[in-house]
Amino acid sequence: MKMRLVLAAIALLPALAHAQTPAKPAHLVTELSSDHVDISTRYTGDEITLFGAMSEPAQVVVKVTSPTQAVSIKQKGRVGPFWLSVAKYDIADTPGLYFLLSSAPIDKILPATAQRRYGLGLQDALSGMHVSPTPADAATFRHALLDLKARHHEYVVNGQAVKILGQRLYSTTIKLPAQLPLGTYRVDIYLVRNGQVIATDHRQINVAEVRIEHWISSIADKRSWLFGISFTLAVMALGLFLGVVMGRGGKKA
Amino acid sequence: MDIFLPIAHMDVNLLLILFFGAIVGFLSGLVGVGGGFLITPLLLFIGVPPLVAVATGAAQIVGTSASGSYAHWRLGNIDFRMAFVLLVGSWTGGAVGVHIAQVLEAGGHFGTIVTFLYVGLLGIVGASMLIESLNALRGSSKAKAAKSEGKTGQGGWMTRLPLQVDFPVSQLKLSLIVPVIIGFGVGILTSLMGVGGGFIMVPVMIYLLRMPTKVVVGTSLFQLLFTTAEVSILQAGVNHAVDPFLALVLVIGSALGTQWGTKLGSRLPGEQLRLILALVVVAVAVKMLFGILIKPHDIYSLVLAR
Fold first, then answer.
1. At what angle do helices B213-239 and B177-193 cross, to 10 degrees?
2. Distances B2 to A41, A44, B14, B18, B245 between C-alpha atoms, Å
3. Alpha carbon A229 to chain centroid distance?
4. Is the Cβ–Cβ distance between A37 and A207 less than 8 Å?
5. Dihedral angle, C-alpha A126, A130, A131, A132, nearest 10 °
6. How far is A85 from chain B (nearest CA, A)?
7. CB contact under 8 A, A237 and B301
8. Rounded to whole angstroms, how far apart are CA atoms A125 and A116?
9. Most C-beta atoms within 10 A of its C-beta, which of A72, A109, A238, B190?
10. Average pLDDT, stretch B192-213?
């Protein structure tokens, strides 16, 4: 697999050959091992390999942003002798997944101003966040959210995730968790040299539910009454059927 | 063999869920109790969101009680008039309970309430089963004496209530108010805990309503089937909380387990079996209690908004 990708990346090199002629700006080409993810019942996570070639030796930063996903944070606290949920915060307009993968720690290769300009960093991921009710201690809350997202591997910042081979090829792996928002994921690739972004590229990954899974979950969600009635009747029928089939083999009629 | 649950939003091992269904079916085949009150705690232990665990538990009982109800109907063991009066109460209770669940979930308190209800219920059920089976093991004469004692006391207050109605199948004259209120309570339990309530309904029918033993199990099962069906529909419709894959796998598992349990149960001594079940129930209650007594590892937790 890896070898094949490397070969594919090498095959991309001629595309850059023209770039070698002077005065041509730096640029990069990128390919994904797959540009779509099919969510079926058996889907429990996926890996997408991103690989490409660059016109000159540089560092590479890859940013993956998923569509937004509404989540809640529950806070536990002491109530008498018990530890119970004491507060719940609804969080809207934050990406479900946010990966910032680079070939070196981002702070070492790009100054803060440039990071902000290109939206590279967790601050940027949370820039559109709305929380209700407003938490009393915003900093602690933010920290807790980022900590939880990191632990669920939903927000990942990794300064060693992009591998550079022979100064011209790069590759990295995007690890998608089992639970993820549907829709179009944006993949932005930045070529960085001397503290500046010298070229960018972008790709998309389309995450969609397939066939029967899509049908079931959209019915359960959008036509919940129809789903409730037909599913309950189906379970009743299944129970009757199993009872009849198995009753025949075993006990008294 | 992992599958992704579309409503619970998590991946689980299919065989583990099948195993849960089989355990609960096995226990109910072995000792004759419903066992629905073990499904929800087991689902909670593996991280299924509380509302989904409770709603799916109700749907699962629809499947497991269907064939039993049909068998009792064929045998004529159902007092339909009584069942319908109970259903008036339990359907109302179920609808009220599902809306209470919705409000509690929106405020983030549903999990807490469920935990408390389960600790209380399993504690009481487990302790009384433990006492009963220990008494039975020590000498069956004492237990019998206790039973007949309980039977003597149908209070005069029940005959003085208005709306007295004849129940010919059960050979009773009874105020409608009593079964409606009992049904209401069971409906609330089904919607907030995902249990069928047979473990409450059966003793109430025998000792309080004084129905003939012959129709008690059939009537309770029939009433329970339609109460859980109503709650399952409402939980899906209002709360979007019934997970189809989880429910189906549990139903299949428990059907297998019940067969196995019934066969084994006829060969093993009943008192010891009840003792084992009582210990299981108490252990689950204690584990849930510790879950809220011990300082949690994480003060904050992340859940998907629904």
1. 50
2. 9, 7, 6, 12, 12
3. 35
4. yes
5. 180
6. 6
7. no
8. 11
9. B190
10. 85
Between CA B296 and CA B190 the distance in angstroms is 28
pLDDT in tens, B150-180: 444 455 667 677 777 788 777 778 888 888 9
Q: Which residue of chain A is at minimal alpha-carbon distance from B247?
A: A235
Given A45, A221, A236, which is nearest B66 (Cβ)? A236
pLDDT score of B57:
92
Q: Who contacts B5 (Cβ-Cβ below 8 Å, separation ≥6)?
A: B11, B12, B48, B243, B245, B246
Contact by Cβ (8 Å): A128, A94:
yes
Q: What is the mean pLDDT of chain A?
A: 85
Instruction: Write down the pLDDT at residue A2.
Output: 57
Q: Which residues of chain A have pLDDT under 70?
A: 1-24, 211, 247-253
The answer to whether A75 contacts B300, with C-beta atoms less than 8 Å apart, is: yes
- From A81, A152, A213, residue closest to B302, measured CB to CB: A152
Provide mean pLDDT across the span B177-198: 91
Of the given ranges (A209-213, B210-214, B225-229, B276-280), which has the lowest mean pLDDT?
A209-213
Question: At A46, is the secondary structure helix, strand, or coil?
Answer: strand
Q: Which of A68, A73, A85 to mutate to test the interface with B (most CBs of B within 10 A)?
A: A85
A interface mutation test: which of B16, B112, B290 has the most A CBs within 10 A? B112
Q: Please say whether the beta carbons of B51 and B110 come within 8 A.
A: yes
Looking at residue A187, what is its pLDDT? 95
Q: What is the pLDDT of residues B40-65, one digit of tens each?
A: 999 998 989 999 999 999 999 999 88
Do the Cβ atoms of B271 and B137 come closer than 8 Å? yes
Q: Give B230 to chain A, closest Cα distance, Å.
A: 9
Cα(B137)–Cα(B276) distance, integer angstroms: 12
Nearest to A100 by CA among A188, A11, A7: A188
Tell me if B245 sits within 8 A of A232, measured CB to CB: no
Q: Rounded mean pLDDT of chain B? A: 84
How far is residue B266's CA from residue A202's CA, in Å, rounded to a whole number?
68
Q: Looking at this protein, which amino acid is placed at residue B99?
A: H
Q: How many whole angstroms separate alpha carbon B169 and alpha carbon B209?
A: 13
CA distances from A74 to A65, A144, B61, B105, B298 (A): 24, 11, 30, 11, 10
Name the strands in the sheet holding A98-102, side by side, starting at the edge strand that comes first in the sequence: A36-39, A196-209, A183-193, A59-65, A98-102, A155-158
Question: Tokens 């983030």 belong to which residue?
Answer: B108
**Residue B95 pLDDT > 90, yes or no?**
yes
Q: What is the pLDDT of residue B60?
A: 92
Pairing state between β A130-132 and B164-167: unpaired
How far is the C-alpha of B22 from the C-alpha of B14, rounded, in Å? 12
